[in-house]
């Protein structure tokens, strides 16, 4: 963990490097946490990622110029975002996803007319069943895009697919669910 209180951060050769690092830390730590939290949706994970960002900054301090704040900010954000997507995609690969914990919210809290139709017809439990039949990846895409309002770019980055593919997958998922609904309507249920 990076510490800037009362001591020179390890890995710095000169006092001017220590001052530069400390100044960067104070300027960018909180803004980076806010930025990364939008990606990982966790205060703790965002803080860990930003700490790792500053660890990497220690090794590359010469690439940063305090007189160019826009470039510095862009450089730090780039590092942090790459770490965030790496960490987050690794967690997705290994952490079990419980889509049922958000299904009620996914279905009932939407201005989308398709979902409102399901809700108004009392089909929530049927929708939950249909969603649970989707692959884990499809459930995640549906959750991230619909419930958590992620952009297609964010989804594409997490799954390491093109943005257009993320958009197409989301559209196909919605279409399949709606087709199940239409078949149910045709049966008169």
TrEMBL record:
Has the keyword Glycosyltransferase been applied to this entry?
no
**Its Gene Ontology molecular function terms?**
DNA binding; sigma factor activity
Origin, by domain of life? Bacteria
Q: Which GO terms describe its biological process?
A: DNA-templated transcription initiation
Q: What single Pfam family name could you report for this chain, choosing any that match?
A: Sigma70_r2
List the InterPro entries: RNA_pol_sigma-70-like, RNA_pol_sigma-70_dom, RNA_pol_sigma70_r2, RNA_pol_sigma70_r4, RNA_pol_sigma_r2, RNA_pol_sigma_r3/r4-like, WH-like_DNA-bd_sf
Which stretches make up the RNA polymerase sigma-70 region domain? 24-89, 130-177
Family, as annotated: Belongs to the sigma-70 factor family. ECF subfamily.
Mind telling me what this protein is named? Answer: Sigma-70 family RNA polymerase sigma factor
Q: List the source organism.
A: Candidatus Anaerotruncus excrementipullorum
Top-level taxonomy: Bacteria, Bacillati, Bacillota, Clostridia, Eubacteriales
